[in-house]
Write a structure and sequence with these properties.
Strand content of chain A: 15-25%
Strand order of the largest sheet of chain A: 1-7-2-5
Largest sheet of chain A: 4 strands, antiparallel
Order of helices and strands of chain A: HEEEEEHEEHHHEHHEEH
Structural class of chain A: alpha+beta
Number of strands of chain A: 10
Largest interface: A-B, 34 and 34 residues
Oligomer: homodimer
Number of helices of chain A: 8
Distance between the termini of chain A: 33 Å
DNA sequence: CGCTGGATTGAGGCCGATCAACTTCAGTGG
DNA sequence: CCACTGAAGTTGATCGGCCTCAATCCAGCG
């Protein structure tokens, strides 16, 4: 219930090609411990304390889920993204050298700390890895595109996206979300009340079935229709 | 007036490191013509006709400006991004192998067609270029973040972003935008009327001075305040 | 000069925010 | 096991910002 990722091992990690080279992990602590590497355990609500503001590591979620966010002048939280098991956060910091936001665990979570310098070194001699990392970055560009207009569109697109990222069974699209209605709202630029109302509306219309953190997508076609219109 | 970019040469192109290696252009037609390479001239309104849906090239704007967009079921245009002289479009297609949207010229425009396969080849032996392209992709992730809530916030952030991307003089923040109010609205998820109204309001409040396509940022601090709040 | 597409401005309506009451859940300790 | 407590979720009533529809103005151009 507290762990939305069905897989806990490295086999769905986006960076596994980096680890599996030579049948041995070249980066993460899990396989080849290096002095500066860490495997970090976070309790629900704890934030990743970057060793400094300076960017040095990417973070791969092994188990659990995280959010990246900023708090603006009014004290409102703006969520930039949610990250689940196998996904990687920190790409945005590569260019500037500084993390543009904080990262907090949505439930008990384990992450691998990946030293980026070592990653770059590894790249130099491996064209396959060059292509892989470029593909990952390209993929990031297409995701997090919830620039839909209406609240229903945004929530529909959000649910469709999450169902696939949580590796939900295609024939039984049921999953549990680790974040609160407020988190969802802060991400989609909606209030928790609006999120809740739309969940209820979708449920009443037999499009989904939602109670608290449990979700089931019933009419995926209709949901897609709402998201794309 | 028709060309918002002050520079017409390659010296501000994001991909110039690729071209300047060996003091000779390794990719674009401008310096080293390859059979499949082209330099394309587009008139205002013309779209880039990808040779196929299949992704094969990145496109660097040499002169002018472009927009990437999709048209949804209702016939509404959703604009994903604006691109000016020196900037590169097409990164989103790398991962999937297909262009997820169309690209149209906002004014008379010249673009360099960059064969991506050749670019990857070039990468293999040049760590400096590997870092450069990864930095470019990382930078793309941080841009196009107009997920502000209010219309004023979005437009303020938009104007600040564009002033820097158009390389406007810091001491005289004046520039002319090639896109219509409708384009801006389609990008910021606002109607052209709302964009127009806010331009008028900002002008009345001595924050900017806008008439038609001409803009001047008068009180940049106040504009930043609006954008960040 | 008139024509045309874009920009501006006004009036009214709708969607989502705000404020508030109540319910349900999860964790704690008796 | 149950009672208590605070956080999260739901639902209702009202308010306000942006959209919609419409009229007018303006610039560019044949």
């Amino acid at each position: 219930m507290n762990n939305p990722g069905h897989h806990s091992s490295c086999d769905i990690c986006q960076l596994s090609p980096f680890c599996m080279e030579d049948k041995n992990c070249a980066l993460s602590t899990r396989c080849l411990p290096l002095p500066t590497d860490r495997q970090i355990k976070l309790k629900r609500g704890e934030t990743l304390s970057w060793s400094s503001d300076k960017f040095e590591h990417l973070y791969a979620i092994q188990q659990g889920a995280m959010k990246t966010f900023q708090t603006n002048a009014d004290g409102n939280e703006i969520i930039h993204g949610f990250y689940f098991a196998g996904e990687v956060l920190g790409y945005e910091a590569i260019n500037t050298g500084y993390y543009p936001f904080s990262a907090a665990a949505l439930c008990d979570t384990e992450v691998c700390e990946i030293p980026f310098a070592a990653m770059l070194e590894l790249l130099e001699s491996r064209p396959a890895l060059q292509k892989h990392i470029i593909n990952l970055l390209s993929h990031q560009l297409t995701s997090s595109q919830y620039l839909k207009t209406s609240a229903e569109q945004r929530l529909a697109a959000f649910l469709i996206d999450l169902s696939s990222r949580l590796h939900a069974d295609k024939n039984n699209l049921e999953f549990s979300l680790p974040m609160t209605r407020e988190d969802i709202g802060n991400y989609l630029r909606l209030t928790p009340e609006t999120v809740s109302r739309i969940c209820s509306r979708f449920t009443a219309n037999q499009i989904i079935k939602s109670e608290y953190k449990k979700f089931r997508l019933i009419d995926l076609d209709k949901l897609r229709l709402i998201a794309d219109e």
